[in-house]
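Worked example 2:
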Amino acid sequence: MTKLNTLAAFTTVMTMAAVGLSAGWHSAANTTVKSETLIVSGDSVSATQGCILTGQYPRGSLIVFRAQVRTPAGKPAAPSDKVVVHLSNGMQLRMMDIHHPLPGKPMYWVATWLVPMNAKLGTLSYTITALNPHNGVHGTFYPFPTPTTLPTIVPFTYNAKVTATAGGKVASLITVGSTLKLVAAIDQDVPAGKSFKAIPLTHGVVKAQLGLAGATTPGGGLKAALTINLRYDATTKTWVGTTLLASGLPQGLYEIEVKGHDSLGNLVSSTPIWLGLEG
């Protein structure tokens, strides 16, 4: 191509561009694309503890996921919008729009998850997505991605209620050489309508430790002088263990604690009870 032809071609292109700009050329480069995003905010609270913010959720507790979804203009999202919690364990929880139970509070979205007794322990990450199915406008909430700000699943702890008996009677004082029987009711209270139902622990390892009052290990735990293995009694739905208090045991005030775990790693603990041993 000669210099003259090249100059002519360049002049033609520049002229077309100038004409197009002055005439409001209908081209892709001049098309305005409307872009809107739903604004999603959220958190998680413990319903078991009264809807408070917490970092740890024991197995068996109820997590409430809450969200507010607004348009760029600040208006609440439509009830027909689809708002979903996506858990890192693969579960998806559909959220519902409700009005806050306290007067004057704004409408928000909520979903609940009852943490299974075999749920994986550790950090549970999640996101909340919102979608307007009519126009495709959507948004996503990402909580701050650190273990200290995300929900952490921890083992459930069964509360053992312990009773000491001797000779068929509840005892707070027992003589050396007697047979001590310990009975522990180990239950989980689960919602049943407007009340609760006690579900007994039926499997696992449960032991009672007896130690002189005030005697502790270097770590601050009870220094056990005697350990009793407890077994589940299906008839009484309690854990039972017996032992002969040998004459070699020092006399004095003893502390009794029950500890253990089930096959899923959930824990058993009790508040101490006290037993006097005399000669």
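The longest strand covers residues 179-192. The longest helix spans residues 3-23.
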